[in-house]
Every structure is written in C-alpha cells, then in structure tokens.
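Our consortium's second objective concerns turning raw sequence data into structural hypotheses that experimental partners can test. To show how far this objective has progressed, the report includes one record in full. It was chosen at random from the queue rather than selected for favorable results. The single chain below, 329 residues long, was entered without modification.
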Amino acid sequence: MAACYSSGMANLLEQLTSMTVVVADTGDLHSIKKFTPRDATTNPSLITAAAQMPEYAEVVDGALAWATEHAAGDASKVLGLALDRLSVEFGLRILDLVPGRVSTEVDARLSFDTAATIAKGRYLISLYEAAGASRDRVLIKIASTWEGIRAAEVLEREGIHCNLTLLFGMHQAIACAEAGVTLISPFVGRILDWYKKAEGKDSYAPAEDPGVKSVTAIYAYFKQYGYKTEIMGASFRNVGEIIELAGCDLLTIAPTLLAELQGTEGTLARKLDPAHVHAIEKRPMDEAAFRAAHEVDRMANDKLAEGIAGFSKALVTLEQLLEARHRKA
C-alpha cells in the first residue's frame, strides 16, 4: 500500500516536502525567499526573464563589468563571458537563500558537442569556486543528448555533479543512469503538451497524464535496478501532475504552482515509493541502442529538438539584452 499522510491542517506543499525534495523552478530571488525550497534550478528562459526585471539591473551590470575586465581588450569575448557570469551570479545569490543546490545550465547551443560541454562545465564550476561556493552545491545542467550524456560522464568523474535536462524518453533516462549522472530532469508538462496535440485531447486524468506515466516508469526502473541517479520531475502544467508524483526524489515547481499547493489543504497520498515498484525488463543502452530508440520515439525526438531550440533562442535574446546594456554603459 502507498503511504498516506494525514493533513491535520497541513497544506499540500507541507505534506509534499515530507516525502519529496521540493525545488523552486525560477530565477526570481523573491519567489525563492517566499517558498524556502531546499534547492533551486534555473534555465536560459528563466534567467532571461529575471535579467529584464528592474530589481536585478545591478546583477546584469555587474556581470557586464566583470566580463569587460576579463575580456583583455577583446570586445568579441565580452558577451560570452557576461552570459556565463550572469548565470553564475544568479546562482550565487540563490545559494545564499537555499540550503542545498542550484542548477546552472550549459549553453544549449553546445548540446551536440561533448568536448565543448565538458569545457563549459569546468569553466562554470571554476567561477563558482572562485567565488567561494563548493562544487557540491552546484549542478551543471546539460541537455540529454548522447553527446551531453557523455560529457556529463566525464564531469561526474571529476566531481562535477550534473543535472541532465530536456529528458523525455526512457532511453535518455537509462543512458544517464548508466553514465552515473547525479540527477535527471524529465519534463512532465512538455510530454503532456506533445500528446495533447498528437492525440487531439484537451486534457488527461492526472493518473493517465503521459508525462506522469513516463516519470513513474523511470522511477520504477531506477529503483528496481539500484541506480543512484536522482529523478527530479520538472515542467509541470498543473497541480494534479505534482500530486500524482508525490514521493519522487525531487520535484522542481514554478512559483505559481507552489502557491497553489501552499494554499490547498487536504490529504496527500504518497504515489511513488521505492518499496512498491513493478518489474521492468533491463535495457542495455549503448550508443546504437540510444540512437535507435530516439529515432522511433517521436515525442522525445520532437521535444528534445524543440527544447534545445527554445533555450538557444532565449540565450540569443539574453545576449541582445546584454549587448544593448553594454552599449549604454
């Protein structure tokens, strides 16, 4: 039987935190202060949104000033340096607010370049460590391409922990676990989006939500075969998806849904439990198996490509914002 947690007067968020590590999916420091999550995660879209808020102008200006100083007179390097510095600056501020870890993303445009991803991961960690932050409190976010997973495998051996993002298929999850990555972020809501469009449906019952079913299957596989890789459900569209994944290792949740959980009382049942997983056949996952599985999984194929394109577009927008700000300086 799944464990059941009696609410008393506890809201759903309080009960969720008793069985799952809650992570704030935002670059907005005010939201992190409000909900006091253990960890926080950002992505290029969230950093771009935060960078346009007037209250973070000094963070943006500080990153540009640092980049100008470190570009050694090469104007072409300023934007790239500022981009990395800005991500780390937000990460450092987040680490001041949470007791756990922050995820900082590698440039999505490097998603198919293993060597460049390794170099960028090392560089981001060096910036954190130069600022006095321990690498144990930072997760380097990398897209779950074959090339990205191989980069993460190298970084993990160096003690640089990784969060493999834009994960949509079981083949991606297995490859990550076999590479020994610290954490994966399956995108629940984006899986739902694809199936709603593909099947012409307006909605699914929470337990039948394709994103929920995907994470449930990954959870069962990892627990059955003893993988240490943590599973962090991400990209939620509604509270129903979160309730169905109560008990998952971690869930990263946007501030609007955190507020909804906090404002709702009731009894939250644990749905995922390592003691109660169904048997799944073991699937070896070398490069040939990965690429074959990815080719036939239309949803994972579409959403990975779309996600990389979306994060890359957000980076271009952020670069344009930084360039305009730099010109004014």
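The partners drew two points from this record. DSSP finds 14 helices and ten strands in the chain. Residues 1-7 have pLDDT under 50 and may be disordered. Both points have been shared with the crystallography group to help prioritize constructs.
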